[in-house]
Amino acid sequence: MKYYIVDAFTDKLFSGNPAGVCVVEEAVSDDIMQKIAFENNLSETAFIQKTADGYSLRWFTPTFEIDLCGHATLAAAFVVTNFIEPDADIVKFSTLSGILTAVRKGDTFEMSFPIKAPEKAEITGSITLALGFVPAELYSQRDLYVVADSEEAVANFIPDYDKLSKLEKWMGIVITAKGNTCDFVSRFFCPELKLEDPVTGSSHSSLVPLWSKKLDKTEFTAMQLSKRGGTLYCRLCENDIKISGKAVLYLKGELQI
Length: 257
Description:
Elements: E1 2-8, E2 17-23, H1 30-40, E3 45-51, E4 54-60, E5 65-66, H2 70-84, E6 90-95, E7 98-105, E8 108-113, E9 119-121, H3 125-131, E10 137-140, E11 144-147, H4 151-156, H5 161-164, E12 173-178, E13 184-190, E14 195-197, H6 204-215, E15 219-224, E16 230-236, E17 241-245, E18 247-254
Parallel strand pairs: 2-3, 4-6, 11-12, 13-15
Antiparallel strand pairs: 1-2, 1-18, 3-4, 4-5, 6-7, 7-8, 8-17, 9-10, 10-11, 12-13, 13-14, 15-16, 16-17
């Protein structure tokens, strides 16, 4: 099985968010895919397989399958257009979140993601205790979106994963604020894995509609303030969200399965 590691949402190595991409030519079981993802030990491993009208795409963390992942989709589009179909400028992926499309525009990939507008949530004592500070606002979707007062508050946040793990209703905890040199910033924490995701495209399915209402605009430059860092270019459309970014290849090889 051909295997690639791609740094997504960046134009230089050792930044952005690394994703594994496995090119499946013969069907493998869910159990094998999960074991590969565990062995790779990256935040996401993508599995792509050619279909009649595009590719099937699935995403696995080291411990479970998820329904949407931005950086691994970008990595998969990079692999398809550079190593499988170098003449392709449009790639369609069939996923658990429906059909996702990636369009190559030079060295940038524009992806279509579903709109997942979050709903305003109540600020409770248990949430404040888990966070360690009183948020300005809370919003709920697949993840918990915590609006902080400033970019500095987002950058300086120190997660207590034991406390954050008590917020079992949500897969991830997203801290966000208006940016100083961009439209908005964020960080993404996964309490179950006890890690910070470097750049999280899927969270912007909710961050973009959230900040669109706050800033009264539809086009954004967003930055994720992890140690590796990353930049996303986002546009809210009528039926979907366009998320664009760059990617670079770190590794190319073969898995002995």
